[in-house]
């Protein structure tokens, strides 16, 4: 992380090469935020966002059944085939270009695995949510009150919001004049910025109050 700020200290750029790295059986994960053994008290959250992980799974590898509560989990598949199963009785196959949203609410168990013959690469965002809500799973859209999620490709202007997280999922991007490679990110507070993207930029704008 270079930790440098742009403008009036409202844009922080973080490089993909400075992310923490975790290896497991058939799984490689890059962490943009503090995670597990890679605890960093200065990088626990940005607004409601507490996790931005990029996962690379070998064929057949995956995350076995585990439980989540009080989280809104957004999954973007970049390459390969992801198979999702959950305790709600749901089963889904998520392919590149598709967004999936698991609202964990009061509690849900789920598992994810590489169901294809090629490597699976996906990015997953975790946002703080309502621990009393009923859990739900949906494909193709993200429904979190006060949060807007978009995949941007090409030139655009990011509208000002209390917190905007922009992650380069593939290719390159220029955010407020800063060059970012894949894995890099910009954390923007209360400022509109111009961007140019040659690839895919995952943009999460957070406008609701931060849960305690």
Explained architecture:
This protein has 212 residues and is an all-beta fold. Helices cover 0% and strands 56% of the residues. It is built from no helices and 19 strands. The strands form three sheets. Strands 1, 2, 14, 15, 16, 17, 18 and 19 form an eight-stranded antiparallel beta sheet that branches. The chain has a seven-stranded antiparallel beta sheet with strand order 3-4-5-12-7-10-13, with no helix packed on it. A four-stranded antiparallel beta sheet has the order 6-11-8-9, with no helix packed on it. Residues 1-8 have low confidence and may be disordered.
| C-alpha geometry | globular
How would a crystallographer describe the biggest sheet?
8 strands, antiparallel
Low-pLDDT residue spans: 1-8
Q: Helical percent range?
A: under 10%
Going by CATH, what is the homologous superfamily of the domain at 20-143? Jelly Rolls
H/E element order: EEEEEEEEEEEEEEEEEEE
- Average pLDDT confidence is 93
């Amino acid at each position: 992380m270079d930790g440098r700020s742009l403008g009036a200290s409202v844009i922080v750029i973080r490089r993909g090469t400075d992310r923490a790295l975790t290896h497991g059986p058939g799984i490689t994960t890059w962490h943009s935020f503090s995670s597990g053994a890679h605890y960093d008290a200065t990088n626990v959250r940005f607004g409601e966002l507490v996790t931005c992980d990029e996962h690379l799974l070998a064929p057949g590898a995956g995350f076995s059944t585990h439980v989540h509560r009080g989280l809104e989990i957004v999954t973007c598949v970049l390459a390969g085939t992801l198979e999702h199963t959950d305790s709600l009785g749901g089963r889904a196959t998520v392919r590149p270009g598709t967004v999936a949203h698991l609202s964990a609410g009061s509690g849900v168990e789920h598992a994810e695995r590489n169901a294809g013959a090629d490597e699976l690469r996906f990015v997953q965002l975790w946002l703080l949510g309502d621990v009393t809500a009923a859990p739900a799973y949906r494909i193709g859209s993200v429904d979190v009150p006060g949060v807007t999620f978009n995949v941007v490709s090409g030139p655009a202007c990011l509208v000002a919001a209390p917190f905007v997280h922009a992650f380069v999922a593939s290719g390159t991007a220029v955010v407020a004049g800063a060059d970012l490679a894949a894995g890099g990110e910009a954390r923007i507070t209360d400022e509109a910025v111009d961007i140019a993207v040659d690839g895919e930029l995952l943009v999460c704008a957070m406008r609701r109050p931060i849960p305690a």
